[in-house]
Amino acid sequence: MKDLTCIIIGGGYAGLAALKAIKKKFRGMEKKGRRIRFVLIDKQPGHLRKLRLFRPTTAEEEIMIPWKQLLLEGFEFVQGTVTSVNSRGKRIRYTNAIGNEARICYDLLVVAVGSTVRRLNAEQGGIALIEPQAAEDIREHWRTNLRKAVDERDPEERKRLMTITVAGAGISGIETSAELALAMRKEAATLRLNSADISVYLLNAQERLPPEGAEKVGRKLDQKLSQCGVTVLHNRKAMREETGIVMLNNGDYLAAGLCIWTIGLMPNPVLQGMGLPLTTEGQVLVDECYRVQGMPDVYSIGDCARIIDPRTDKADQMTCLEAGMQGIRLGKIVMADLEDRPAPIHKSVKSNMDYFNIGLGQNGFFWIRKWGLDMTMTGKVPGKIKNLVEDYASMLR
């Protein structure tokens, strides 16, 4: 039997889940003498823990994990950016870490390049939380502002230096604002500033948090954020920041020492040049078994793919939970396709319920809706559960 080469593009949560699941399913074949070579291609030198991107905004924390520190073994790593996929010739072209072009052939290909944080035009000001360096820049910026506030005699300017706005109230924005409020209050006390003067505003373009939850859930989340030191402004959207003034959609403004943008995700733009079939939003078109349309032996999962639950006709959300479940199912699908038998189809993990778990400093806020009932849990337990889930998704040793 022919040995196989399985290439996985993207070492994020979806890519790692796919690699683990396919390797597990192939153990039986390897025992029968059929070998498979696994190659992981990613532009980063390690696994980026995107769920913890907000953490370096307040403390020095390494969220880029070397591949050798992961539980996964038995794969080759190639650092590079894939530029095209030739499905007829079953080969991909990529640019390696030093800028040289190279090619590699495959028998099975999994595209899991994920998503990126939406970028803004430079003239809109502020700092977009898009990468670890941006998080570090944010940390240095607010710390510098607090040091300036120590010697500032103008009360209005001191107040501005001790104020931050976070534009975008998704999970990333909520967690970022809570983490910053807690850290800034602690730092202010160390500098002998009045911690009560710290202001962190979370700008929510919707009527409440979360928009899919009941009103009472939103009120409770607002309350927990307030206890962290965050003021949520609903029906407010930041338009731009200029010279310390954040202009809002209703004509009001906020004086702030820093404006942070957390305005959601978009499919990885690198997909545009790969030659894959894409939706108008830029996601890979796949069937209910994650097979890329018109490209045999090519699969795609995670944020970069448009995955629809055939029973509900609803698209999967861009979260690591969905990516992990898709990866597990993909292992079964690939094996079924190789053995020429019916493959399992996609099933949304949230088909019968909605839920999320948000970090609020060391604590958490867990919400679930099932059978029409809204249930919440707060405190250290959901915070610890969230950390454990993130560690599992990153496959840390």
Automatic annotation (TrEMBL):
EC number, as in UniProt: 1.6.5.9
Catalytic reactions of this protein: a quinone + NADH + H(+) = a quinol + NAD(+)
One Pfam family per UniProt: Pyr_redox_2
Key words, A-Z: FAD, Flavoprotein, NAD, Oxidoreductase
Residues annotated as domain FAD/NAD(P)-binding: 6-309
Domain of life: Bacteria
Enzyme class name: oxidoreductase
Family: Belongs to the NADH dehydrogenase family.
Protein name: NADH:ubiquinone reductase (non-electrogenic)
